[in-house]
Amino acid sequence: MKTPPRYDDMQLFRSGITNLYLLREGDAYLLVDAGVKKKEKAFFTFLRKQNIEPADIRYIFLTHTHYDHTGALAMIREITHAGILLHASEAEYLKKGFTPAPKGTRASTKIISFLGRRVFPGYSKYEPVTADLLWEESGYRPEGFPARLMHTPGHTEGSATLIWKDRAAFVGDTLFGYEKDDCLPWFANDLQALRQSWQRLLDTPCQWFFPSHGKPVAREMLEQSYKKHFPETD
Ligand SMILES: [Zn+2]
Protein backbone atom coordinates (compact mmCIF):
# COMPACT_ATOMS: atom_id res chain seq x y z
CA MET A 1 0.00 0.00 0.00
CA LYS A 2 1.16 3.52 -0.78
CA THR A 3 1.78 5.83 2.15
CA PRO A 4 -0.44 8.91 2.13
CA PRO A 5 1.52 12.13 1.60
CA ARG A 6 1.91 14.83 4.22
CA TYR A 7 1.26 18.31 2.93
CA ASP A 8 2.48 21.36 4.82
CA ASP A 9 -0.62 23.30 3.75
CA MET A 10 -3.05 20.72 5.18
CA GLN A 11 -3.90 19.79 8.75
CA LEU A 12 -6.27 17.17 10.06
CA PHE A 13 -8.53 17.54 13.09
CA ARG A 14 -10.64 14.61 14.24
CA SER A 15 -14.08 15.72 15.36
CA GLY A 16 -15.38 12.47 16.81
CA ILE A 17 -15.93 10.18 13.82
CA THR A 18 -15.46 12.98 11.29
CA ASN A 19 -12.20 14.23 9.75
CA LEU A 20 -11.95 17.99 9.38
CA TYR A 21 -9.28 19.34 7.05
CA LEU A 22 -7.78 22.78 7.39
CA LEU A 23 -6.19 24.04 4.17
CA ARG A 24 -3.83 27.01 4.17
CA GLU A 25 -3.05 29.57 1.51
CA GLY A 26 -0.73 32.33 2.78
CA ASP A 27 -2.20 33.43 6.12
CA ALA A 28 -5.73 32.38 5.26
CA TYR A 29 -7.48 29.06 5.88
CA LEU A 30 -10.31 27.09 4.41
CA LEU A 31 -11.99 24.48 6.61
CA VAL A 32 -13.54 21.35 5.11
CA ASP A 33 -16.68 20.53 7.18
CA ALA A 34 -17.44 21.51 10.77
CA GLY A 35 -17.81 18.14 12.52
CA VAL A 36 -20.02 16.95 15.36
CA LYS A 37 -21.49 19.03 18.16
CA LYS A 38 -19.67 19.13 21.51
CA LYS A 39 -16.29 19.10 19.74
CA GLU A 40 -16.21 22.87 19.23
CA LYS A 41 -14.03 23.52 22.27
CA ALA A 42 -11.50 20.89 21.24
CA PHE A 43 -11.40 22.42 17.76
CA PHE A 44 -10.61 25.91 19.07
CA THR A 45 -7.97 24.47 21.41
CA PHE A 46 -6.42 22.79 18.37
CA LEU A 47 -6.38 26.14 16.51
CA ARG A 48 -4.70 27.86 19.44
CA LYS A 49 -2.00 25.20 19.62
CA GLN A 50 -1.33 25.66 15.91
CA ASN A 51 -1.23 29.45 16.35
CA ILE A 52 -4.18 29.88 14.01
CA GLU A 53 -6.49 32.83 14.65
CA PRO A 54 -10.16 31.81 14.26
CA ALA A 55 -10.70 34.94 12.12
CA ASP A 56 -8.14 33.64 9.61
CA ILE A 57 -10.58 30.90 8.60
CA ARG A 58 -12.24 32.53 5.60
CA TYR A 59 -14.42 29.70 4.36
CA ILE A 60 -16.10 26.57 5.66
CA PHE A 61 -16.75 24.22 2.75
CA LEU A 62 -19.53 21.72 3.52
CA THR A 63 -19.23 18.43 1.67
CA HIS A 64 -22.91 17.86 2.56
CA THR A 65 -25.26 18.54 5.47
CA HIS A 66 -25.40 15.35 7.57
CA TYR A 67 -25.27 16.06 11.32
CA ASP A 68 -21.74 14.70 11.72
CA HIS A 69 -20.50 17.38 9.29
CA THR A 70 -22.68 20.28 10.48
CA GLY A 71 -23.21 19.72 14.25
CA ALA A 72 -20.51 22.23 15.24
CA LEU A 73 -21.16 24.58 12.32
CA ALA A 74 -23.27 27.22 14.10
CA MET A 75 -20.67 27.84 16.78
CA ILE A 76 -17.62 27.67 14.50
CA ARG A 77 -19.24 30.15 12.15
CA GLU A 78 -20.16 32.49 14.99
CA ILE A 79 -16.57 32.64 16.19
CA THR A 80 -14.74 32.63 12.84
CA HIS A 81 -17.26 34.64 10.73
CA ALA A 82 -16.25 32.36 7.85
CA GLY A 83 -18.38 32.18 4.72
CA ILE A 84 -20.20 28.87 4.32
CA LEU A 85 -19.91 27.20 0.91
CA LEU A 86 -22.71 24.75 0.24
CA HIS A 87 -24.20 23.15 -2.83
CA ALA A 88 -27.57 24.87 -3.32
CA SER A 89 -29.54 21.61 -3.32
CA GLU A 90 -28.98 21.14 0.45
CA ALA A 91 -29.55 24.74 1.57
CA GLU A 92 -33.05 24.00 2.88
CA TYR A 93 -31.84 21.10 5.04
CA LEU A 94 -29.19 23.30 6.63
CA LYS A 95 -31.75 26.05 7.28
CA LYS A 96 -34.02 23.54 9.02
CA GLY A 97 -31.21 21.80 10.89
CA PHE A 98 -32.35 18.39 9.68
CA THR A 99 -31.04 16.14 6.92
CA PRO A 100 -32.66 12.69 6.56
CA ALA A 101 -30.45 9.65 7.24
CA PRO A 102 -29.03 8.19 4.00
CA LYS A 103 -29.74 4.69 2.68
CA GLY A 104 -27.39 1.84 3.56
CA THR A 105 -25.30 0.19 0.84
CA ARG A 106 -24.89 -3.17 2.62
CA ALA A 107 -27.03 -5.32 4.90
CA SER A 108 -25.66 -4.00 8.20
CA THR A 109 -25.89 -0.32 7.26
CA LYS A 110 -29.35 -0.78 5.76
CA ILE A 111 -30.47 -1.65 9.28
CA ILE A 112 -28.71 1.40 10.73
CA SER A 113 -30.32 3.55 8.05
CA PHE A 114 -33.76 2.11 8.82
CA LEU A 115 -33.32 2.85 12.53
CA GLY A 116 -32.08 6.34 11.74
CA ARG A 117 -35.08 7.12 9.56
CA ARG A 118 -37.88 5.46 11.46
CA VAL A 119 -36.87 5.02 15.07
CA PHE A 120 -34.46 7.85 15.92
CA PRO A 121 -35.05 10.61 13.35
CA GLY A 122 -34.06 13.20 15.99
CA TYR A 123 -30.50 11.90 15.82
CA SER A 124 -30.13 13.63 12.47
CA LYS A 125 -30.95 17.09 13.91
CA TYR A 126 -28.45 19.90 14.40
CA GLU A 127 -28.48 23.64 15.01
CA PRO A 128 -29.87 25.35 11.87
CA VAL A 129 -27.57 27.61 9.84
CA THR A 130 -28.14 29.73 6.75
CA ALA A 131 -25.30 29.24 4.24
CA ASP A 132 -24.15 32.47 2.64
CA LEU A 133 -22.35 31.09 -0.42
CA LEU A 134 -24.56 28.72 -2.36
CA TRP A 135 -23.09 27.32 -5.57
CA GLU A 136 -24.49 25.01 -8.22
CA GLU A 137 -22.11 24.53 -11.13
CA SER A 138 -18.92 22.50 -10.75
CA GLY A 139 -15.87 24.70 -11.20
CA TYR A 140 -16.79 27.27 -8.54
CA ARG A 141 -13.61 28.78 -7.08
CA PRO A 142 -13.52 30.20 -3.54
CA GLU A 143 -11.83 33.59 -3.83
CA GLY A 144 -8.18 33.63 -2.78
CA PHE A 145 -7.71 29.84 -2.64
CA PRO A 146 -6.19 27.40 -5.16
CA ALA A 147 -9.31 25.27 -5.03
CA ARG A 148 -12.33 24.40 -7.12
CA LEU A 149 -15.58 22.75 -6.13
CA MET A 150 -17.14 19.79 -7.86
CA HIS A 151 -20.69 18.48 -7.51
CA THR A 152 -20.35 14.77 -6.65
CA PRO A 153 -23.86 13.55 -5.73
CA GLY A 154 -24.71 10.00 -4.71
CA HIS A 155 -24.15 9.83 -0.97
CA THR A 156 -26.59 12.76 -0.89
CA GLU A 157 -28.03 14.98 -3.59
CA GLY A 158 -25.77 17.93 -2.80
CA SER A 159 -22.61 16.02 -1.93
CA ALA A 160 -19.53 17.89 -3.12
CA THR A 161 -15.77 17.60 -3.44
CA LEU A 162 -13.09 20.25 -3.12
CA ILE A 163 -10.12 19.87 -5.46
CA TRP A 164 -6.99 21.42 -3.97
CA LYS A 165 -4.19 22.46 -6.37
CA ASP A 166 -5.19 19.62 -8.71
CA ARG A 167 -3.39 17.16 -6.46
CA ALA A 168 -5.76 16.25 -3.61
CA ALA A 169 -9.52 15.90 -3.39
CA PHE A 170 -11.58 16.37 -0.22
CA VAL A 171 -14.51 14.14 -0.93
CA GLY A 172 -16.73 14.07 2.17
CA ASP A 173 -18.67 10.78 2.20
CA THR A 174 -18.35 10.12 -1.54
CA LEU A 175 -15.65 7.63 -0.48
CA PHE A 176 -15.06 5.91 2.86
CA GLY A 177 -11.53 5.21 4.07
CA TYR A 178 -12.27 2.45 6.58
CA GLU A 179 -11.36 -0.62 4.55
CA LYS A 180 -8.11 -1.80 2.95
CA ASP A 181 -9.62 -2.93 -0.34
CA ASP A 182 -12.87 -1.04 -0.82
CA CYS A 183 -13.87 2.62 -0.57
CA LEU A 184 -17.64 2.35 -1.22
CA PRO A 185 -19.38 4.55 1.38
CA TRP A 186 -21.53 2.53 3.75
CA PHE A 187 -24.40 4.86 2.97
CA ALA A 188 -25.57 6.31 -0.33
CA ASN A 189 -28.96 7.54 -1.52
CA ASP A 190 -28.27 7.03 -5.22
CA LEU A 191 -25.70 4.50 -6.45
CA GLN A 192 -25.98 5.49 -10.11
CA ALA A 193 -25.23 9.10 -9.24
CA LEU A 194 -22.38 7.85 -7.05
CA ARG A 195 -20.92 5.90 -9.99
CA GLN A 196 -20.88 9.05 -12.13
CA SER A 197 -19.31 11.03 -9.31
CA TRP A 198 -16.57 8.40 -8.94
CA GLN A 199 -15.94 8.71 -12.67
CA ARG A 200 -15.67 12.48 -12.26
CA LEU A 201 -13.13 12.00 -9.45
CA LEU A 202 -11.10 9.64 -11.65
CA ASP A 203 -11.17 12.25 -14.42
CA THR A 204 -9.21 14.66 -12.18
CA PRO A 205 -5.41 14.38 -11.92
CA CYS A 206 -5.69 13.78 -8.15
CA GLN A 207 -3.65 10.91 -6.73
CA TRP A 208 -5.18 11.05 -3.25
CA PHE A 209 -8.73 11.40 -2.01
CA PHE A 210 -9.34 12.53 1.57
CA PRO A 211 -12.62 11.23 3.00
CA SER A 212 -14.50 12.48 6.04
CA HIS A 213 -14.33 9.04 7.62
CA GLY A 214 -11.23 6.83 7.77
CA LYS A 215 -7.92 7.11 5.99
CA PRO A 216 -6.88 8.74 2.70
CA VAL A 217 -7.81 6.72 -0.38
CA ALA A 218 -5.24 6.26 -3.17
CA ARG A 219 -6.32 6.58 -6.82
CA GLU A 220 -5.57 2.85 -7.37
CA MET A 221 -8.01 1.87 -4.61
CA LEU A 222 -10.73 4.03 -6.15
CA GLU A 223 -10.11 2.40 -9.56
CA GLN A 224 -10.29 -1.05 -7.96
CA SER A 225 -13.52 -0.29 -6.07
CA TYR A 226 -15.06 1.20 -9.20
CA LYS A 227 -14.44 -2.06 -11.11
CA LYS A 228 -15.79 -4.10 -8.23
CA HIS A 229 -19.07 -2.23 -7.76
CA PHE A 230 -19.73 -1.03 -11.30
CA PRO A 231 -18.23 -3.77 -13.52
CA GLU A 232 -20.78 -3.38 -16.32
CA THR A 233 -19.97 0.26 -17.00
CA ASP A 234 -16.27 0.17 -18.06
ZN1 LIG B 1 -22.90 11.75 5.30
Describe the structure.
The chain has 234 residues and is an alpha/beta fold. The chain has a single domain (10-229), classed as Metallo-beta-lactamase, Chain A (4-Layer Sandwich), CATH 3.60.15. Helix content is 27%, strand content 23%. The strands form 2 sheets. It has a 6-stranded mixed beta sheet with strand order 1-2-3-4-5-6, covered by helices on one side. Helix 6 runs antiparallel to helix 7 (219-229). The relative contact order is 0.15. The model has no long low-confidence stretch (mean pLDDT 94). Zinc ion binds next to loops.
Care to count the β-strands?
11
CATH topology title:
Metallo-beta-lactamase, Chain A
Q: Outline the biggest β-sheet.
A: 6 strands, mixed
Q: Look at the structure and give the mean pLDDT.
A: 94
**Strand adjacency order, main sheet:** 1-2-3-4-5-6
Question: How many domains make up the 3D coordinates?
Answer: 1
Write a brief caption for the model:
27% of the residues lie in helices and 23% in strands. It is an alpha/beta fold and 234 residues long.
Summary tags:
alpha/beta; 5-stranded mixed beta sheet; single chain; 234 residues; 7 helices; 6-stranded mixed beta sheet; binds zinc ion; Metallo-beta-lactamase, Chain A
Show the helix and strand layout:
Layout: E1 10-15, E2 18-25, E3 28-32, H1 40-49, E4 57-61, H2 67-70, H3 73-80, E5 83-87, H4 91-96, H5 107-119, E6 133-135, E7 147-151, E8 160-164, E9 168-172, H6 191-202, E10 208-211, E11 217-218, H7 219-229
Parallel strand pairs: 3-4, 4-5, 5-6, 9-10
Antiparallel strand pairs: 1-2, 2-3, 7-8, 8-9, 10-11
Helix pairs in contact: 6-7
Bound molecules: zinc ion.
